[in-house]
Amino acid sequence: MQKIFSFLKNKYFKFGVAFTLYILWVIWLGNYWFLLGIPIIFDIYISKKVNWSPWKKRNTKNSTVVEWIDALIFAVVAVTVINIFLFQNYKIPSGSMEKTLLIGDHLYVSKVSFGPRIPNTPLSFPFAQNILWGNIPSFTTLVQWPYKRLAGFREIKNDDIVVFNFPEGDTVALERSNESYYGMVLERINDLKINDENRGFKRSEDEYYNQARKDIWSSYTIVYRPVDRSDNYVKRCVAIAGDTLQVKNGKLFINNKPQKEIEGIQYLYYVRTNGVTMNAKTIEEMGISEKEVSPSEQGYYIFLTKKNFETMKHFNNVSRIDSLFQEPGKYDFRVYPHDSRFAWNQDNYGPLYVPKKGTTIKLSLENLPLYKRAIGHYEHNKLEVKNNEILINGKTVTEYTFKMNYYFMMGDNRHNSLDSRFWGFVPEDHIVGKPIFIWLSLDENKSFLGKVRWNRMFTKVKS
User: Fold this and answer.
1) Ramachandran angles phi, psi of 182, nearest 5°
2) Average pLDDT, the chain
3) Domain map (residue ranges) of the chain
4) What does pTM read for this prediction?
5) 38-85, pLDDT tens digit by residue?
6) Helix, strand, coil distribution of the chain in percent, nearest 5
7) Which of the listed residues 15, 294, 390, 443 has the most CB atoms within 10 Å of its CB?
8) Are 84 and 250 in contact (CB under 8 A)?
9) Cα 188 versus chain centre, distance
10) What is the DSSP string of 200-267?
11) Other CB atoms within 10 Å distance of the CB of residue 441
């Protein structure tokens, strides 16, 4: 046994292990310039000519403070590397995925499932997504790397739950950072149109946009963020690249086939009662939180899964349950592509084709609003419309071939989720990883040990 321990401590054995792991990492990375790091590894384990930890003295005992500093530096570097290439923690901040994922769930998010990305902004403060404190950014754009994804275990499949960078998070109003900047502009455009209609006045779409943008910029501090520094979101990928999706009266269809039954999906209903109030204990036992129940004069507005709907309609004090789906053909300006020619809303949406890398589509003024952001913003083309012609990078075009795969994300809490129905496609370069399991779950409405949802600890995230 002593010989085995001596062998494991041998510098040549340690070098061999480190060398092998490093070579495998370089192959995975696909950047062979990093082979220049081999002499450094050799020196660390064998020749030891350079002190690669200058804060520590060699061949002598260091103080406790220095040892702690050394351990802290190692921990920061190790965790940073792990977060980039292997996995990362993510906390559920909102109820858009109720009942599948709850507010306060802490997720283990695998980076290797779909393949980890090389950071776009490698110079950043560890463990901070975009803000250090106040309005001070946690990153710098002095060095920016192009999008590159390493090999993963598999591709994204329909109905996978996915963590991704918010597509509209590239522009942020710091004073309202939890809202979409583009959504704020749309709200302002809508307000301007209503005011003009009341005065019998009308402007062009460009004039409305320019005025709304000017108003937002004059009222808030606007900043730009790279892809990897926009906020992280988690939703269900209901349509992958190449799919055509449609929502009919709340029911999702992919390639003309209904989405599989998912237990956690829920909608908002109006539950009419005979005047007898709902039992709070019974509601809690059904897994319905206080935030999901809003009382009114004749009943309650409640978010219900299919199972809870079937249970509640048999309550003695429930006289009727009404669905609250928007009518087909009723245009909602908040819904993507935010164009009245597409009279869509969150419950009646599409059909919409999700772009696939290498696929060529016919491009016209009629379907341009659907793919304008993908072509111009995500794929970095100069897109213009002049004299009723579409110009890409200065050339008139009638078709376009996509450079990336795109995905369509929706929350399981269908009437309380700002998702792709409102801001469109998620490009492949925005994909972060796949949640594997819940390692901690805390109920913000409870106190002390009562906050811990023990039954959710280390449970698998169900797709």
Assistant:
1) -65, -35
2) 94
3) 1-52, 251-323, 360-401
4) 0.92
5) 999 999 999 988 988 888 887 788 888 888 988 899 899 999 999 999
6) 30, 25, 40
7) 390
8) no
9) 25
10) T----HHHHHHHHHHHHHHHS-EEE--GGGSPEEEEEEEE-TT-EEEEETTEEEETTEEPPP-TT-EE
11) 23
